[in-house]
């Protein structure tokens, strides 16, 4: 028994050091997992899930970059239009998708393609936002009809 105590005493410092390193490693992994993907920057955070856009509904005027994250299980995109039309009344084509090129709307933000589930992207606006009404939309097939739009006010 005395020899066991002696071995433990000799290893005590090593065991404490290993435990401390392990605890610190767990903390680093948890913090890194909570951070946005590397390189994704933007002053407006956007989280898209299946058929829902979550972002601020009031923005200040100026140039914005959207930090887009797809937390859903299917691809999504982000478009933001300046328009006087409410989000549920945008012009749609025979396929049920929003007609993006119409004089009734000006596109300021376009993620350019589908953002895969779990992926993130920085999406800069093409021009500064001015006071008025905007609509954020996912215009992948069927998504707008499923309610994937959001009214936004700039003031």
Gist?
The protein has 155 residues and is of the alpha+beta class. The chain has one helix spanning 2-34; strands spanning 44-49, 52-54, 58-59, 65-70, 79-83, 105-110, 120-124, 132-137, 149-154.
Detailed description of the structure:
The chain has 155 residues and is of the alpha+beta class. The chain folds into 2 domains: 1-35; 44-154, Cupredoxins -  blue copper proteins (Immunoglobulin-like, Sandwich). Helices cover 21% and strands 29% of the residues. It has one helix at 2-34; strands spanning 44-49, 52-54, 58-59, 65-70, 79-83, 105-110, 120-124, 132-137, 149-154. Mean pLDDT is 86; it is low at 23-37.
Secondary-structure map:
Layout: H1 2-34, E1 44-49, E2 52-54, E3 58-59, E4 65-70, E5 79-83, E6 105-110, E7 120-124, E8 132-137, E9 149-154
Parallel strand pairs: 1-4, 3-9
Antiparallel strand pairs: 1-2, 4-7, 5-6, 5-8, 8-9
Features of this protein?
1 helix; 2 domains; 4-stranded mixed sheet; 155 residues; elongated; Immunoglobulin-like; alpha+beta
Instruction: Using the coordinates above, name the CATH class of the largest domain.
Output: Mainly Beta
Helix-and-strand structural type: alpha+beta
Q: Which ranges are low-confidence, i.e. pLDDT below 50, for 5 or more consecutive residues? A: 23-37
Strand content: 25-35%
Order of strands in the sheet with the most strands? 3-9-8-5-6
Q: How does the major sheet shape up? A: 5 strands, mixed
Oligomer: single chain
Q: Under the CATH scheme, which architecture of the largest domain would be assigned?
A: Sandwich
What is the H/E string? HEEEEEEEEE
Shape label: elongated
Radius of gyration over C-alpha positions, nearest whole angstrom: 24 Å
